[in-house]
Amino acid sequence: MKILITGANGQLGQEVSRLIPDASRPGRNEMDMADPGAVGRTLDEIQPDLIFNCAAMTDVDGCEKDRNSAYMINSVSPSVIAQYCIKTGARVVHFSTDYVFDGTRGMYTEEDAPDPVNYYGLSKILGDFAVIPLSNSLIIRTSGVFGEKMNFPLFVYTSLRDGKEINAIESSYSPVNAANLARASVEVERKGLSGILNIAGDRISRYEMALGIARFFGMDESLVRKGNKIPGGIARRPFDSSLDISRATKLLDWDFHSLESNISRLDVH
Ligand SMILES: NC(=O)c1ccc[n+]([C@@H]2O[C@H](COP(=O)([O-])OP(=O)(O)OC[C@H]3O[C@@H](n4cnc5c(N)ncnc54)[C@H](OP(=O)(O)O)[C@@H]3O)[C@@H](O)[C@H]2O)c1
Asked: Across 117-255, where does the E strand assignment appear?
């Protein structure tokens, strides 16, 4: 079976690539997701039977500023992948985000109606809509992915290690380590699942997360201050975008979700 991974250099794509080392991994120069025509041509050339679509424009403020690129990468190119799957019978595992929700309530289930508050969320839900009608596609909705690039947990770790104070707000989400997310995603794909599935960490506020990191690595908790406003960004952020992961926890018999399991894999070297 031919497997293709998009976004193989991203946080999630790298981890999926580790688990499926013989997959094709076209880079931006061969399969630019901002150019839907190139996406179609590359798929027709490689003819994969299974696609892990890990590529996305994930810079939330960047999506707000450059809506055209966000639309092409997050909405139109996933629809080209979906068209390829309809044409050939191939399967796609597509990744979605907690930012499709407005964040007023939290603990969103797979059935909850999306209502994004920023262009990133809108562009991602448009991509989901293209994939949802495929009967054997799988959409994995996740939150706060942290892997090898600079991210909030790594920022907390390096700041506290260097004795710097940090402000962390009480907005909640469901952060997950990219390695746990990749393993869980590959496992549920192999179970033949279709539809939408939330795979993420346990609900936590960014403040609690920062304290958890301080405790786990034996660093000074008093350096963690409660921030009261979302740091300046162009795009609005959902306040509580946490996901209900009860369906995934029933399907998988290992701990992909606890804070400890996820921060123990924090890439601190
Ligand atoms: N990060 C999060 O907190 C988060 C939260 C919820 C959901 N998600 C979803 O989870 C998935 C994986 O996210 P991630 O954190 O792994 O993202 P990431 O680290 O930002 O990686 C994104 C990947 O997409 C590639 N990409 C971007 N624009 C491209 C283009 N025009 N053509 C080809 N490739 C392009 C990047 O390529 P380069 O390496 O060349 O830049 C990179 O490999 C995405 O669907 C994202 O929406 C992420």
From this structure: 138-142, 145-146, 166-168, 172-173, 176-177, 195-198, 204-205, 224-226
Residue nearest to atom 40 of ligand 1 (CA): 28
Q: Which CATH code is given to the segment(s) 3-149+178-203+241-257? A: 3.40.50.720
* Torsions phi, psi for 71 (to 5 deg): -65, -45
CA of 28 to the centre of ligand 1 (A): 12
Residue 192 CB partners (closer than 8 Å, separation 6+): none
Q: What is the pTM of this model?
A: 0.98
How far, in Å, CA of 123 to CA of 71, rounded?
Answer: 5
Rounded Cα distance, 80 and 130, in Å? 9
Domain edges within the chain: 3-149+178-203+241-257
Count CB atoms within 10 A of the CB of residue 184: 24
> Are 134 and 82 spatial neighbours (Cβ–Cβ below 8 Å)?
yes
Largest Cα–Cα separation, the chain: 57
Do 33 and 77 touch, CB atoms closer than 8 A? Answer: yes
Residues in the ligand 1 pocket, defined by CB under 6 Å: 7, 9-13, 28, 32-34, 54-58, 73, 95, 97-98, 124, 142-145, 149
- What are 138's strand-pairing partners? 93, 195
CA of 223 to the centre of ligand 1 (A): 31
Ligand 1 atom index nearest CA of 175: 3
Condensed to tens digits (0 to 9), the pLDDT of residues 43-76 reads 999 999 999 999 999 999 999 999 999 999 999 9
